[in-house]
Amino acid sequence: MDTQDGQSTAFKRNRIITVSLVTLCLIFQNLSLYGVAIFLPEIRKTFGLSFTEGGAISAASILAYTIMQIPSGYLADRFGYKKIFVTGVLTTTVLCLAFGFTSTYWQAVTNQAFSGLFRALLFAPGLALVTSWFSSDRRATAMGLASSGLFLAQVFISGLGPPLAAGSSWHFPFIVFGAAGIVISLAFLWFGKGSPSPTAPQQKVDLREVFQLFRHKIMWLFGILQYVRFAIFQSIAIWLPSLLIEEKGVALQVAGIIVAVRGLLTIPANILGGYVSDKTKSPIMVIAISFIILAITTALFVRVDNMVLLIAIIMVNAFFVQFYFGPMFAMPVEILGKRMAGTSTGFSNFFANLGSFTLVYLLGVLKDTSGSFESGFYAVAGLCIIGLIFTFILAKIRRKTAQTAV
User: Fold this and answer.
1) Would residue 377 count as lying in a domain?
2) Beta carbons within 8 Å of 201's beta carbon, 6+ residues apart
3) Residues 34, 157: contact at Cβ < 8 Å?
4) Contacts of 338 (CB under 8 A, 6+ apart)
């Protein structure tokens, strides 16, 4: 009994340390990307860029990140979550620091492209590592918990970035946060643990199994929904600061506070959405409700000029923009099992970031051609409706799959 109690205590201690360090490391995954978003008006002035060129800096990172999604998930399942994750977080934080020293537009684009490649080594391995420490009935909750670090990035860079830049320039926050990230990544290397139940060599994922995912109709549906989900999230995250500053007349520091509070709201929503999905066993309901509210609030961004009302709408949008994250990523693992957790997460996130790249770049082009963000944010709202339609299709197929299994 004493031995079992000791093992249980050690397991819980290692889980707390590992999950906490993974969450801290995930803060730095998107720090550089959201830093570009909040400082984009200043970066455009420094390099003399159009909105399309400004959007291309973020789009380069997102495109490279997209390409690496399935490979990163496969590498994690093949070689171990911790090994791949620590490679990604250390390289990403070094590149964040290096972005603070860029002096030309093409240096910035190149830096962000490489950053995207290595950021991909954080997401799927990080989520798979965290969920490996939890039981299957807490999978969506674990997904929501792990991803909270991703959205703390927006809080940190938006809340602390403008004050840090006030006494110098937009370069300084990237240097500060990059250096801090290197320290955190080394802490994970020394104190973080790998999966408590590593896959046996004979059970390792084969490369052929990765390509077979494209043969499953339900996986394509997950891919479409992930395309829509992250296109919505990232287009708002990247362009909302510019909308507030360029069209609503908000000062940089005030916009930073609004975006920081918005990012802070996504964290409890992220965890709560996963909990509600696990508790009610109704992931489809969580996804559908989220799409409906996002469609309405996103369209109102460009229609409402009263600042108090606009901020309230932004906060409602912020709550639901990540409310359905857990169930979206938990359902593929539910079908494929833990053995392919990294690969299935990478598959889903490949489509998610394809949507992100498309919409982030499109909103910059639409702003340049129309002179307003109106058409771009209406396009995002329309995408929410498309997501809702495919959610109902997924519900029908998932129900048939469950009946066949019985």
Assistant:
1) yes
2) none
3) yes
4) 131, 132, 136
Q: Please, what's the largest Cα pairwise distance for the chain? A: 71
Alpha carbon distance 255, 267 (integer Å) = 19
Residue pLDDT, tens place only, 38-69:
898 899 999 999 988 988 898 888 888 888 87
Residue-wise pLDDT for 116-134, tens only, equals 999 888 877 887 788 788 7
Q: Say if 50 falls within a structural domain.
A: yes
pLDDT tens digits along 6-36: 557 888 888 888 888 888 888 888 888 888 8
Alpha-carbon gap, residue 146 to 341, rounded angstroms: 14
CATH of the domain at 396: 1.20.1250.20
Please give the model's pTM, rounded to 2 decimal places.
0.67
The residue segments making up the domain with residue 60 are 11-194+203-405
Domain count, the chain: 1
Q: Which two tokens stand for residue 139?
A: 């999978």
How far is it, in rounded angstroms, from Cα 127 to Cα 342? 8
Judge whether 32 lies within some domain: yes
Among candidate residues 185, 198, 242, 174, the one with its CA nearest the CA of residue 26: 185
Distance CA 238, CA 369 (A): 18
HSE at residue 292, side-chain half, CA atoms within 13 A, is 7
- In angstroms, rounded to a whole number, what is the distance separating the alpha carbons of residues 219 and 121? 21
110 pLDDT higher than 80:
yes
